[in-house]
Amino acid sequence: xxxxxxxxxxxxxxxxxxxxxxxxxxxxxxxxxxxxxxxxxxxxxxxxxxxxxxxxxxxxxxxxxxxxxxxxxxxxxxxxxxxxxxxxxxxxxxxxxxxxxxxxxxxxxxxxxxxxxxxxxxxxxxxxxxxxxxxxxxxxxxxxxxxxxxxxxxxxxxxxxxxxxxxxxxxxxxxxxxxxxxxxxxxxxxxxxxxxxxxxxxxxxxxxxxxxxxxxxxxxxxxxxxxxxxxxxxxxxxxxxxxxxxxxxxxxxxxxxxxxxxxxxxxxxxxxxxxxxxxxxxxxxxxxxxxxxxxxxxxxxxxxxxxxxxxxxxxxxxxxxxxxxxxxxxxxxxxxxxxxx
Length: 341
What we know:
mainly alpha
């Protein structure tokens, strides 16, 4: 019964947020910030699986986000809207209400397949070398999209706003906000179940000592493929949601600067802490909004924040701990958790 309490609590939070958005209690700007928070939670927790739990160093998460954003957007515009690029929609626009999560998952699967470009080289490389590979993959994805003219090339791709409007015509509700909340819960649940399972302990073993884990019969290659593909796939889902929040995407959005933002959230929250990634995603998104009037100067503040973090709190807010480790009494409400070392 106690295992259901986190789900019930999260459901209550979601209902409160959706009710506030639907009744006008939250204005459009507050809703936008909430949606950015949700997307950043998916991005930070998914990257933490690689950089935190597995101990690798990936710096190209924005590239997988771009794959999911473009695949989901192209599918939705092609299927549900009349566009100058693809012509009349193949399906009725109202179908978007039911098929949107399907296209979103297809975008995630596409990003996961691209994640194999990183998973396979990771068998032989670690640390700085893997960082260079992931950075190269990020630029390969960005440059490839820029040279595909049918989907806008460097100019970008639009039309997702019409997809959102089609859903609203069926039932007037903040649908993108709803789907973001659903996939935030799904992401955290999947990652929590993985890293606390016996199977997922093999990923943590790679971080501690890859050679020793191989000796202890851990299939490190299989674990790396699973971790990279799951992390990349969740980044693709976040990209698809991000595209429909904006209604427009451009390859220039998914650069090393976007990957740096995600890295800051991971290291700010703590390597190997889901609770830390969630807290840092919330805090970092709010900080970005506060610094928005600074415009380009925020790109001085963000790297400075990372430098100060590495100097004074290198383990991040939570380190390798979860909230149930810091506040043991929470275990009574959230169910018993294995204490993290």
